[in-house]
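Input/output pair, single chain:
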Amino acid sequence: MNKKRSLFIASIVSLGGFLFGFDAAVISGVNNLITTEFDLSSLQLGWVGSCVTLSSAIAMLIAGPLSNRWSRKRVLILVAVLYTFSAMASAMAVSYTMLWVARFIGGFAFGAALVLVPMYIAETVPSHYRGRMVSVNQLAIVTGFSAAFFSNYFLNDLAQSASAFASYMGLDGNLWRWMLGLEIVPALLYFILLFLIPHSPRWLFSKGREQEGLDVLRNFNGDKAELIKEEIIQSLSQDKSNENSTVVGIKNLFSKNYRFVILLGVVLGVAQMATGFNAVLFYATNIFERTGIGTDAAFAQSIWIGLINVIFTLIAIFLIDRIGRRPLLLTGLFGMAFFLGLVAYGFNQATYKLSPEKISTLRGDIDRAKLSNLTDKIFDSAVEFTEAINKEFGFADGALVKGDLIQAAGDLNAILLLIGILGVVACFAFSLGPIMWVLLSEIFPNVIRAIAISFVGGINSLTSYLVVQFFPWQLETFGASMTFIIYMGFALLAFLILLKILPETKGRTLEEIEKQFVTA
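Output:
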């Protein structure tokens, strides 16, 4: 019964993770469409994708302290409101500015949810399956990825069907609006369901509401509730500082007692994003186009990212409380480095030549006159070929024909590249994806947990912002091969550092972990 109750609560709270995943992945399907709609440059396109990570970083810095004051539950309800507003405004955007502002507002929901969902679950559910329950949030995130990739593919296919229904719904001219607007449905559902969850018991104890906190503990821990209550009170009493004070809390972060856990948290936060996963996620369709499979097939292949994400996240949930956090994380990091190197190798071997025979296979609406300067020329990289396409067609129109031209001209091993990209996704899904948030919810003491997770989460989101903002520019400037080599280097560096400092935390209460890594 306790496990069912924990799973029920974790599933409701983790719908915030589903919304994060959906919003993060859905943008990959609209990139080319909004580039044409608003005549965007590569940096403007990067900003539409990355602006959410910048506002997310801001939200992460304030979500923890705010949840100390208002409660985890109340801030999560605010998150649901922001998700709903952002989805509506994005779908109704009439300009580039309105679009990025709407997404920027949604980023505040991103950041707060990423911080508060694992924190709430870790503070509420029993320790012996805490890892699995916190990982439910990651499962919700990757399910959101899959839902977005599938809905993008379905809507794109429906829009091209020329059916009466598609015409009636306005899909032919407003495809990207439908893609972004679907998020409104789960966002409203999240808002309603959040009223069914209790307050975090550790938050209740921090506010002196001991009987309410004990009642929640009994619902989830049964006879062990009294013992856990004493551990929580003892932990909170070790620091008499007012934990509602953000200034005091941040000052505590840099004290000698917390130096190790903060260092570990920062390494985890940077590593998760610096290895380039969000670049793969936000620009999946663009990356698959560069493998030469074409635009429509790129939408279909993106679905595989979502499916692989779900499958390997389920594997992580099954194993995390059995074999532990450390083996999964280190194995996944090493695997990411290998597959990132494989992707880099695949792109490095590619050449591009647009012969008259291949031009004859192109769709009829592509202007053949603009292809005369490209015919029978050999390009050694996608960077050179894309530059030539943009020179002839312009950046906005080039975005619409680039996938077809690369498909026709490319001489590269698309299967090798697909294996590499899906390998990166799989390794991330059973390691850095869920385990970073599990560890962050565990390693910080009660008295600084909210502020510490906010601090590390802010660094995590800023790293993501830099990766997502500059990924289109990196592809244009350095090419796909060198871009993925850079990410491989970060994965190897993170592996070596965590091999040295990463502890194991499975099966211990939050207070036991605190005694080992802080007070000792």
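Residues 278 and 468 are 7 Å apart (CA to CA). The longest helix spans residues 130-159.
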